[in-house]
Amino acid sequence: MAAEDARKVLVKEHGGADAAIVFTASAAAAPVAFSCLKRRGRLILVGLTTDTYTFSVTETVLKGIRIQGSYLGPRADLEKVFALAAQGVARPKVATYGIEAVPELIGKLAQGQITGRAVIRF
């Protein structure tokens, strides 16, 4: 499913998202995530990029959207993690869930009960 299709389904069926976390540095991801947000939503940007994004100031203010960056560490640390993964020492734990599981997952995330990555499948 294309990002625009996922956005339409999310907005139509759920009224949008309370929060969106963008892990990728893709130039297209942040504006699409922003467009999915409900009133008083939060956009958290993790992926580093030199690209510039454009967000509507009017929509940001009227909807009370908060845009926040989340820096997790230096590139050297990431390179060490990749090296460990290549050696088989570190194995990622990834679980995939349907969109209906999001409310439960948010609760588990808030309580620190999720290890690894929880991926939402549209």
Task: List the main descriptive attributes of the protein structure presented here.
122 residues, alpha/beta, Rossmann fold, 2 domains, three-stranded parallel β-sheet, two-stranded parallel sheet, 5 helices
How does this structure look, described?
The protein has 122 residues and is of the alpha/beta class. It has helices spanning 3-14, 29-35, 57-63, 75-86, 102-110, and strands at 17-22, 37-45, 66-69, 94-98, 117-121. It has five helices and five strands, in the order αβαβαβαβαβ. The model has no long low-confidence stretch (mean pLDDT 85).
Low-confidence stretches: none
The average pLDDT is: 85
Could you give the count of β-strands?
Answer: 5
Helical content (DSSP H or I, runs of 4+): 25-40%
Judging by the overall fold, what is the CATH architecture of the largest domain?
A: 3-Layer(aba) Sandwich
Enter the CATH topology name of the largest domain: Rossmann fold
Termini gap:
7 Å
The whole-angstrom Rg is 16 Å
What is the CATH homologous superfamily assignment of the largest domain?
A: NAD(P)-binding Rossmann-like Domain
Overall 3D geometry?
globular
Query: Which CATH top level class of the largest domain fits?
Result: Alpha Beta
Largest sheet, spatial ordering of strands:
1-2-3
Can you write the helix and strand succession as a string?
A: HEHEHEHEHE
- How many structural domains are formed by the residues? 2
Given the helix and strand composition, which structural class is it? Answer: alpha/beta
Number of helices: 5
Estimate what percentage of residues fall within beta strands.
15-25%
Biggest β-sheet: count, sense, barrel? 3 strands, parallel
